[in-house]
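Sanity check

After download, print the first record. It should look like this:
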Amino acid sequence: MALHVRLYRPDRNPVRRRSDRLEALGVVVALALLLLSVWPAVVLGRMAYENGTRAERSGVGARRAVPATLVRDAPGAVADEHLELGARVEAEARWAGPAGKPMTGRVTAPAGAEAGTRVSVWVDARGRLVPPPRRHGETVFDTVTAALLVLAGGAAVSFSGFRGFRRLLDRRRYAAWDAAWAEAARRWRRA
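Expected structure tokens:
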């Protein structure tokens, strides 16, 4: 690490070539691009968090959890070997709708649950089944993922840009080196 810092630090070394100084400038530009990607990552992460919390709150009042009772036994792990322990399956259930009207439908329940088992379901104002509200953990995961993807993109652009610039400089350095050796060979032949 110390060697790399020494290679890119500004100094008055007479042996340092113009391409070496340009490469050091390329490192500074690449780091600046990487740092500039932090701001869009923060903005996108904040947008993802706000959208997620809005989705968590959407339907409050219009969506509510109610108890439902299984009408039939849920398929069980004993009968179905392919189900894992603690798996959830679909089963027929009944719950109270608006004004106490009985409603029925297919709900998710623990595998092997017997008829009469109570499960919680989410319903809308008409008593129809709706998906549960978004969990806060999902919002946090989406926020972190969005921010990290932007940072990773910024790092990829920064790194690949610097790498391409360095290859261009290396090509020029090698061409200059070859020309210098060719000139030296001409001088040695004359001598």
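If your output differs, re-run the checksum step. Summary of this record's structure: The chain has a mean pLDDT of 85.
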